[in-house]
Amino acid sequence: MIEIQNISKSFNEKQILHNISGVFDKGMTNLIIGASGTGKSVLLKCIVGLIHPDTGTVFYDGRNFTDADKEMKAEIRREIGMLFQGGALFDSKTVEQNVMFPLDILTKMSPTEKIDRVNFCLKRVGLENVNSKMPSEISGGMKKRVGIARAIVNNPNYLFCDEPNSGLDPQTSILIDELILEITEEFDITTVVVTHDMNSVMGIGQKILFLFQGQKLWEGSKEEIMSSGVEELDNFVFTNKVMQNLKDK
Amino acid sequence: MKGFGRYLMFLASLVVRRESFKTYYKLTIEEAVLVGVNSILLVALVSSFMGAVTTVQTAYNMVSPLIPKFIISQVVREMTILELAPTIIAIIYAGKVGSSMSGGLGTMRITEQIDALEVMGINSASYLVLPKVVASLIMYPMLVILAGVCALLGGYIVGSLTGIITPTDYIYGIRFVFNEYMITFALIKSFVFAFMISTISCFKGYYTKGGALEVGISSTEAVTTSVIAVLIGDYLLAQLLL
């Protein structure tokens, strides 16, 4: 479980996040949703420690991450897996080397154990026989899958996904969403997904946190989102006719 | 001053929370091949012509029949070892290797590869930059030695082929009142220049913000700042050590 308390952040005197608090539950896909530029990615970076919040605290299973020393932070980070928007695969390494990288650096596993683990993770995300390919030789969807494989290879307790569907076709998006949901339940990890894709919200949004202009306006599940009564959320959710018809029914 | 302070903090971050020696060893070898071995041809070519041109121009300027011919190669030796090999090659090194380091790190920054390392709990500055700096400190002095040898050889070949100076005179001039401290001075310069070029270039690349355009700007800044730093360092070292 991850708990955030009163997170605020500003850049050049412009306030991006205003006192955001919330809890991201274990074994669930927790979504942070909102329009572009509303502070979702900044909040995610505050949670994983890539940006230090001006105020507020992040707790990983009760451990204060924000105020922890560098050693403690490094220890918690080793329990984190993250899928970046563009995959963030290392260009100079093959798919296999990319997935194996956390094991090379963070564990003392034997080469055989590492290969087995890499192959297991690649198979788990539906990729086989691509071990020797370079990131430039695979498609965007495959890069995302490799990114997920790398994120889960070290058995993380926390999985973060920043816009996992960006730049993907609808079919591949659904596959990636399903994969994230399956992995979350299968490994019983705390997953936090940043998205503005309503298909993802309705597909995997077990717990949703809605941000509007840097403030948390609503929190609930995908079942509750239809009847939230929050105008800003309704404007975000029911932007197209399909969703409007769904609401009317 | 703010930028300089940030640079010093960046240098400090290279040596804290390091990974295992084995990790750095492998990365340093890879970097040594990239920055050193891959630069051999360019350095040899440039320095050979540098020596050849210095020989021709020195001969052209020595009009007095009272000055013995072997002075030509003595001048070539002094210029090559003291200045041309460490400094001119440093400028070429900044252009070839410094821009590559900056561009590579800048691209890693904008494509979130550096963020990925940080999220894994790895000190990205140390992991990515320290091997480049160590590789430069090892390989650049070797390139300077190579440049010195090639420049003297270039001067010898051109001097002999054009009849400017006989091979015997050339060799005599090279050995005439030779002060070994010049080699020490050239090597001290090369260590300092290698450190400045690699750290400044990596600093510029590591803190790139934005997109592809900014990566290009970082690379350009890396080269210009490195070259200016090399020239200032060159003057200061000459004042302090000669």
- Spatial strand sequence of the major β-sheet of chain A: 6-7-8-3-9-10
Taking all Cα atoms into account, the compactness measure Rg of chain B is: 21 Å
Largest sheet of chain B: none
Sheet bearing the most strands of chain A, described? 6 strands, mixed
Whole-number tally of structural domains of chain B: 1
Radius of gyration of chain A over all CA atoms, rounded: 18 Å
Order of helices and strands of chain B: HHHHHHHHH
Category from helices, strands and their pairing of chain A: alpha/beta
SS field, number of helical segments of chain B: 9
CATH topology of the largest domain in chain A: Rossmann fold
What is the β-strand count of chain B? Answer: 0
Helix content estimate of chain A:
25-40%
Provide a concise account of the structure shown.
The complex is a heterodimer of chains A (249) and B (242). Chain A has 249 residues and is an alpha/beta fold. Chain A has helices at residues 40-48, 70-77, 95-106, 111-124, 140-152, 170-187, 198-204, 231-237, 241-248, and strands at 2-11, 14-24, 29-33, 55-60, 63-64, 80-83, 158-162, 190-195, 207-212, 215-220.
Structural features, described:
The complex is a heterodimer of chains A (249) and B (242). Helices cover 39% and strands 24% of the residues of chain A. Chain A has helices spanning 40-48, 70-77, 95-106, 111-124, 140-152, 170-187, 198-204, 231-237, 241-248; strands at residues 2-11, 14-24, 29-33, 55-60, 63-64, 80-83, 158-162, 190-195, 207-212, 215-220. The longest helix of chain A has 18 residues, at 170-187. By secondary structure, chain A is an alpha/beta fold. In chain A, the strands form two sheets. A six-stranded mixed sheet of chain A has the order 6-7-8-3-9-10, with helices on both faces. Chain A has a four-stranded antiparallel sheet with strand order 2-1-4-5, with helices on one face. Chain B contains nine helices and no strands. Chain B has helices spanning 2-13, 21-35, 40-61, 70-110, 113-119, 124-162, 167-175, 181-206, 212-241. In chain B, helix 4 (70-110) runs antiparallel to helix 6. Chain B starts with a helix and ends with a helix. The chains are: A alpha/beta (249), B mainly alpha (242).
